[in-house]
Design brief:
With 293 residues, this protein is mainly alpha-helical. It has one domain. α1 packs parallel to α11, α2 packs across α9 and α8 packs across α9. The chain is globular and about 55 Å long. 52% of the residues are buried.
């Protein structure tokens, strides 16, 4: 029991660190190429790598007819809509705030999960969610409607969070028999296929495939799309609501990374917002005595 609990905690922390780095890597990539170009290439390469591993090394089976439908829905919400809208939002908002805004996801995941399974959200969960939301808006307030953070960017970010949360609840509701790496590979590749028309339609400027672009792309593919998503699927299968608590840690790491690597401002409002998010983490984690209980 103790070993499984320790593994669960370690899985959650590693996921939080890697997932929070996506905003920073994406921001670097946007200095070189268009948003959808960056993520379209990422989806195709990550999906191809995962599927090669699944079918060449693990000898996984192909999805059955009904499984294709589930993969398309999961890929549409978890990859195409979530990450497609997210990368566009990064043009209008700082990487640190986008990382902090991930704290909104547990709200949507809790509400959607409750609606889906007729489960009542507990008072403790509501308190942690409320603190997380308050922290996001306090940290964003001094930068709102400046070149760093715009209302449009926050709206796009909120929409992407809704899509992601729906994808998470949908995944947890399906009794998958495919291997996890196969599911991940197909949903990422399908997301790339779905977003391709938009990438072509909204192409408007030259793209510079320089060293910065390739470093950003490789980081988004390996640590984020492959490792972090695999860890996230493990956490989701344990419990979708409990998994969402780990999203609270992502803003903390994201703010630190964005300040160090992108020189984004850390203000008194950032500190207050961060403290509130940490409070949300503490309250939420008190519900987790063991991932197997």
């Amino acid at each position: 029991m103790q070993k499984s609990f320790t593994q669960y905690i370690l899985t959650g922390i590693i996921f939080s660190v890697l997932w929070s780095s996506a905003s920073i890597a994406g921001k670097f990539g946007l200095y070189s190429v268009e948003p959808l170009v960056l993520f379209n290439i990422r989806f195709f390469l990550a999906g191809t790598i995962l599927l090669l591993y699944a079918y060449v090394y693990k000898k996984s089976r192909m999805p059955a007819s009904k499984e294709w439908k589930n993969l398309v829905v999961f890929g549409a919400f978890n990859t195409a809509l979530y990450l497609g809208i997210f990368i566009i939002a990064l043009q209008y908002i700082t990487a640190g705030i986008t990382a902090l805004a991930i704290a909104l996801n547990p709200l949507f995941i809790s509400l959607m999960s409750s609606f889906w399974s007729n489960r009542k959200v507990t008072i403790t969960e509501w308190i942690s969610i409320a603190l997380g939301i308050a922290g996001v808006f306090i940290a964003s307030y001094p930068l709102l409607n400046t070149k760093d953070v715009t209302a449009f960017g926050l709206i796009l970010l909120a929409i992407s969070m809704v899509a992601y949360s729906y994808g998470a609840v949908f995944y947890a509701s399906i009794k998958w028999t495919l291997e996890r790496v196969t599911i991940n590979g197909w949903q990422v590749l399908i997301g790339g296929i779905l977003i391709t028309p938009l990438t072509i339609i909204f192409h408007s400027q030259p793209n510079n495939f320089d060293t910065r672009f390739w470093f950003s792309l490789i980081w988004l593919i390996v640590p984020v799309s492959i490792i972090a998503v695999q860890l996230w699927l493990i956490l989701l299968k344990t419990d979708a609501i409990r998994a969402s608590i780990w999203l609270y840690l992502c803003p903390i790491f994201g703010l630190l990374f964005s300040s160090i690597l992108l020189n984004e401002p850390l203000t008194f409002y950032t500190l207050v917002g961060t403290v509130l998010v940490l409070g949300a983490v503490f309250i939420g984690q008190k519900k987790i005595h063991s991932p197997t209980e």
